[in-house]
């Protein structure tokens, strides 16, 4: 048996894989409704028809389908890890003093709210203004030290050292005028804990961490279990920080499509413009699903919509959640 959590559970890994393979083949077709991110030249070259998924459960049980092994950069998915990292170091109160927890309904890189709402506190850590602020809060007096702290958390969860895709980083750095504008505004209003260029370097490097769907699913799994790493048998992240991060994923993780995603999928999730989605199913949600003990889910499908979310990935998730009845609502 694939899972032994309930004797009534009938799923076998092969059967789950076959479902996923069929659904991936079907939803891959949806990719033509989106396009690869073009504002970062290095992302434009991805094959828009790719779609892959990895689901990992608490015993390490893993099912995969499609292009699940293809490397891609974390992009905004990294915002969840950096927020958790900053909270681990400073405590939640310190971080929440500098970044709020309210959805905006605006684009991820929007500038408009910063000046409209004095004193210019970023609305949440999942939009760029909030994420750049959070990156500046990471401990250390240099970008290297800040990234070192973030990498250590990444490594503890995924059991792999992070690799930066230098081509993507350089491409982002060369085209980061809007992020630079955000960072300058945040520096002016006193929200950045370091210099503009340092905060940007940390933020853009964390976006350029190269991953595959399995690593993303592993992070999702640890979040599903409130910071407990079942494969290490260790609480690697504080429960209250993880719960806050999941609330932010649900309300802000899919940008200006977060409401629709909560309504039609119903799982905490975080997307990135390279086409990644990290999501998770909490344990004991539906005993008849293939993952009654919960799971992390990593998806890669580089054709994105106008909000920055993978078109085929969201479509695939809708089907999985519907078929296996695993919405949290
Ligand atoms: O700030 C940027 O432009 C990117 N490096 C990250 C943005 C991102 O992934 C937004 N996602 N959907």
Share of residues in strands = 5-15%
What's the number of structural domains? 2
CATH top level assignment of the largest domain:
Alpha Beta
CATH topology tier name of the largest domain: Beta-lactamase
What ligands are attached or bound here? 6-diazenyl-5-OXO-L-norleucine
Indicate the percent of residues in helices.
40-55%
Biggest sheet descriptor:
5 strands, antiparallel
- Count all strands and give the number: 10
- Write down the Rg: 19 Å
Give unreliable regions as ranges.
1-8
- Backbone structural class: alpha+beta
Measured distance between first and last alpha carbons: 28 Å
Number of helices: 14
Q: Provide mean pLDDT, rounded.
A: 94
Q: What is the H level of CATH, i.e. the homologous superfamily of the largest domain?
A: DD-peptidase/beta-lactamase superfamily
Gross geometry: globular
Keywords: Acetylation, Hydrolase
Family: Belongs to the glutaminase family.
GO molecular function, one term: glutaminase activity
Catalytic activity: L-glutamine + H2O = L-glutamate + NH4(+)
């Amino acid at each position: 048996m694939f899972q032994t959590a309930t004797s009534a559970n009938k799923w076998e890994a092969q059967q789950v894989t076959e479902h996923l393979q069929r659904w991936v083949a079907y939803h891959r077709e949806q990719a033509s409704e989106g396009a690869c991110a073009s504002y970062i030249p290095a992302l434009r070259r991805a094959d828009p028809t790719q779609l892959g998924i990895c689901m990992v459960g608490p015993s390490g049980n893993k099912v995969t389908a499609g292009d699940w092994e293809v490397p891609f950069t974390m992009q905004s998915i990294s915002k969840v890890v950096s927020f958790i990292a900053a909270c681990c170091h400073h405590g939640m109160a310190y971080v929440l003093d500098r970044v709020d927890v309210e959805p905006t309904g605006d684009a991820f890189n929007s500038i408009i709210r910063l000046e409209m709402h004095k004193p210019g506190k970023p609305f949440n850590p999942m939009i760029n203004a909030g994420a750049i602020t959070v990156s500046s809060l990471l401990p250390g007096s240099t970008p290297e030290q800040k990234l070192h702290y973030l990498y250590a958390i990444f490594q503890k969860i995924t059991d792999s050292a992070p690799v930066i895709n230098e081509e993507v980083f350089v491409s982002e750095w060369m085209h980061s005028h809007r992020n630079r504008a955000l960072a300058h505004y945040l520096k002016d209003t006193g929200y950045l804990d370091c210099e503009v260029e340092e905060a940007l370097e940390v933020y853009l490097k964390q976006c350029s961490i190269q991953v595959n769907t399995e690593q993303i699913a592993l992070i999702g799994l640890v979040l599903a279990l409130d910071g407990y790493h079942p494969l290490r048998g260790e609480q690697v992240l504080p429960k209250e920080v993880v719960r806050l991060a999941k609330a932010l994923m649900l309300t802000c993780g899919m940008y200006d499509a977060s409401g629709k995603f909560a309504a039609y999928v119903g799982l905490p999730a975080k997307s990135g413009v390279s086409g990644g989605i990290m999501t998770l199913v909490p344990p004991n949600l539906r005993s008849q699903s293939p993952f009654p003990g919960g799971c992390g889910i990593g998806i890669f499908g580089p054709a994105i919509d106008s909000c920055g979310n993978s078109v085929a990935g969201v479509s695939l998730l809708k089907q999985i959640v519907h078929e296996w009845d695993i919405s949290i609502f």
